[in-house]
Design a protein that fits this description.
With 325 residues, the chain is mostly helical.
Length: 325
Amino acid sequence: MGRFLVRRLIVGAVLLWFVATLTFVLIHVAPGNPIEVFMDPRIPTEQIERLEALFGFDQPLHTQYARWLGNAVTAGDWGVSFFHLAPPGEVIRRNLPPTALLAVAALLIGYTLGILGGIWTAKRPDSLADRILRLLSLTVYSVPTFWLGLMMILLFSGVLGIAPASGIQSPFAEDLPPLRRALDTLAHLALPALTLGLPIATYVARLLRSALLDTLDQPYIRNARARGLSETRVLWGHALRNCLGPLIQALGILLPALLGGAYLVEYVFSWPGLGTVSLRAIQSRDYPLVLATTLYTGGLVILGTLCADLLHAWLDPRVHEIEME
């Protein structure tokens, strides 16, 4: 297990360095820079050039990269956000909780609906209801996240009027009692979490259905039924327990899609999280904040994938044995 962990950590570090380098190159070769974005066009060219020299934008790209990487690695200095006039770490800490709340809620919705749907369809394979549910799952999983969010707003907020369309709280929510303030936040969370969680649910349902159909044909399941165990106990106590591996592996696969989808969902629903901050940073060429949010998100994905792999290896020791071969 130790060698398995070391190998994964090395791969994760190399991958994070590659993401950082690629992001640095892409944002610097894009037209424009923060000085041109924020400065008034009536300001003389000479003054703009002096500011570019002050921030080092007039230096070769490899020189800028070496300086940024050296400061980030040796001193933990990520610079200062041009838009927020604060260290990127402070901006991330301030905007991370709404994104974490949205991601956790989406995972809970996705895995709950996905497990229930996978069990329900596995118990009725190739029935009409199974085919309809699989078609709906494939449709939901295939449509773009932003389009699904817009349809959610149109239906539940525009037509039915039962859920807020944007924001994390209603105006003057800070004046409400704690319980009502929490319920107000949950009401605003419902649509974005459902938009982000439904594609996860469809993926989990199809994965679990396939795993359960294979497991229910195993000899030990037939033996359990022959001993007189109820179908519910056979399903939940024997079959489902042996399908935990694929579900844990799916978590590692879904994390990148979850964070990427959260960025779009936050933008559609005006959710004040890390995704909204990152998109604004890209639009304003806020180099320090773009790099910091990209690395932070990439680090979370790598860490989450590593945790999923370790949990899977703990449940099934054959996993890391295969990895070491």
